[in-house]
Amino acid sequence: MAKVRVIARAVAKNGKAAEVRALLQQLIQPTHAEKGCEYYELFESNHSGLFYFNELWTSQADLDAHAASSHFHDIFAKAKPLFAEPLEVNLLTEIH
């Protein structure tokens, strides 16, 4: 079964970066405890208001379960109005 690599990008509205950061940080601990989560890292860009998740999942089913989790839905419901644009999720394929 192929592992699933994800880079997700969130863009905060002007003046909302601190609120977005605080909400996104709340995803880290419960996500680390999820089945199939090999890593789940949150980064803040040097460009104000840009946040990136770097993720590795054991399977697509595990990623799908994460996206369906209550903590994911609860936190993103609160964060979505603070985003300047929709969450960008990229599934990556390694180039050899």
Would you kindly provide a written description of the structure presented here, covering whatever features stand out?
The chain is an alpha+beta fold. It has one domain: Alpha-Beta Plaits. The protein has 3 helices and 4 strands. A 4-stranded antiparallel sheet has the order 2-3-1-4. α1 runs antiparallel to α3. The longest helix has 16 residues. The two termini are 18 Å apart. The model has no long low-confidence stretch (mean pLDDT 96).
User: Mind telling me the CATH class?
Assistant: Alpha Beta
Number of helical segments? 3
Strand segment tally:
4
Strand order of the largest sheet: 2-3-1-4
Q: Roughly how many Å apart are the termini?
A: 18 Å
Low-confidence stretches: none
Instruction: Evaluate the radius of gyration.
Output: 13 Å
In brief:
The protein is of the alpha+beta class and 96 residues long. It is built from 3 helices and 4 strands.
Q: Keywords, please?
A:
36% helix; 4 strands; 3 helices; 96 residues; alpha+beta; globular; Alpha-Beta Plaits; four-stranded antiparallel β-sheet
Fold blueprint:
Elements: E1 4-11, H1 17-32, E2 37-44, E3 50-57, H2 60-68, H3 70-79, E4 88-92
Antiparallel strand pairs: 1-3, 1-4, 2-3
Helix pairs in contact: 1-3
